[in-house]
Amino acid sequence: MKNHESELQTLLISTINGLKISMKSIMKEQGIPLSPLYFMILKRIHDTENCTANFLADVTEKDKGQITRLVKEVIAEGLVIKRPNPNDKRSQFLQLTDSGLTCYMTLENADKAVLKEMRSEVSDEELQQFLSVGAKMLTKLNAINHKKERG
Amino acid sequence: MKNHESELQTLLISTINGLKISMKSIMKEQGIPLSPLYFMILKRIHDTENCTANFLADVTEKDKGQITRLVKEVIAEGLVIKRPNPNDKRSQFLQLTDSGLTCYMTLENADKAVLKEMRSEVSDEELQQFLSVGAKMLTKLNAINHKKERG
DNA sequence: TTAATATAGTTGATTTTGTCAATTTGTTTT
DNA sequence: AAAACAAATTGACAAAATCAACTATATTAA
């Protein structure tokens, strides 16, 4: 068998690219003055009970400083508020406001529609397979990166 | 079956993220003062006969101005040269220099090693499947984005 | 129980990427 | 030849990412 690894990389890059383009176009359509990154932030806050900035930095693998600024922005837009974390005075819980939730739902629905259409010719079983293989590779990749970090 | 679309998106994002981190760390190790984007550029130039700036903008889906600047940079580094395109005086062919090739090969080999290890627990058949399903989704995604562009 | 160490979050400075519009030079169409 | 189009460049700017230093609180271990 040939080396398909390179193809793999190209495929992933192009796909992410396409998703980003799609999300941008959705946001533009909806007149929402945010970028795909903010959608990610809103989504995580929505999905995570007692979400903290630190958690965001962790799961998104982004710089803590960057997270601070992104969160500051969505707070300025009135989409998110901070609540004190009773267990730790250094940290705060992030929560969507009503308008944040509305905004998020709009984007989430449009995003889901794209993903749904994107996979419209892929069977449930194929997708399942795809996800499981992808997850396996991701685990491995994380192991490689993590090992290097320390080594 | 549940909605796995969202999982799909998360998987893709995390994987790309991991690959970028890996490439960054490779470049650092090798003492190559470039960023992952430049690797992409070098790779395309390497893989494409008579590669033009315009082609790069096309396949990478990036702004032409950005490409101009990226190319300017690799030329300044002595990794790439321009040759006139005999068929069109507006455009030029891009080509790796010897040192560009050396640099590219170094990165490419390290990159391949990562990809290879990443898929080390995935069989050829599984990978084949993965690529084929991924390609199907990418095609669909491009169709969606392309349609919107015009609509 | 305090002293050292670690963690959550913020800020500043800088670099890297991405975007938009205008311009130059050359090509294609009519 | 004029109009429309295309390749590449430039300027100005905005968004995203990186790195290091710093504040305030928590945790650990002497």
Sheet of most strands of chain A: 3 strands, antiparallel
Low-confidence region ranges of chain A: none
Strand content of chain A: 5-15%
Query: How many strands in all of chain A?
Result: 3
Query: How many structural domains of chain A?
Result: 2
Q: What is the helix/strand order of chain A?
A: HHEHHEEHH
State mean pLDDT of chain A (0 to 100 scale).
92
* First-to-last CA distance of chain A: 33 Å
CATH superfamily descriptor of the largest domain in chain A: Winged helix-like DNA-binding domain superfamily/Winged helix DNA-binding domain
CATH structural class of the largest domain in chain A = Mainly Alpha
Helix content of chain A: over 70%
GO molecular function (chains A, B): DNA binding; DNA-binding transcription factor activity
InterPro entries (chains A, B): HTH_MarR-typ, WH-like_DNA-bd_sf, WH_DNA-bd_sf
Organism (chains A, B): Marinomonas profundimaris
Keywords (chains A, B): DNA-binding, Transcription, Transcription regulation
Note down, in words, how this protein is organized.
- The structure is a homodimer of 151-residue chains.
- Chain A is mainly alpha-helical.
- Chain A has two domains: 5-120, Arc Repressor Mutant, subunit A (Orthogonal Bundle); 123-151.
- Helix content of chain A is 70%, strand content 8%.
- Chain A has six helices and three strands; from the N terminus they run H-H-E-H-H-E-E-H-H.
- Chain A has helices at 5-29, 36-47, 53-60, 64-76, 98-118, 124-150; strands at residues 51-52, 80-84, 92-96.
- In chain A, strands 1-3-2 form a three-stranded antiparallel sheet.
- The longest helix of chain A is centred in the C-terminal third of the chain and has 27 residues, at 124-150.
- Chain A is globular.
- The two termini of chain A are 33 Å apart.
- In chain A, 28% of the residues are buried.
- The model of chain A has no long low-confidence stretch (mean pLDDT 92).
- At the A-B interface, helix 1, helix 5 and helix 6 of A face helix 1, helix 5 and helix 6 of B.
- Chain A binds a DNA duplex (30 and 30 nucleotides) through helix 3 and helix 4.
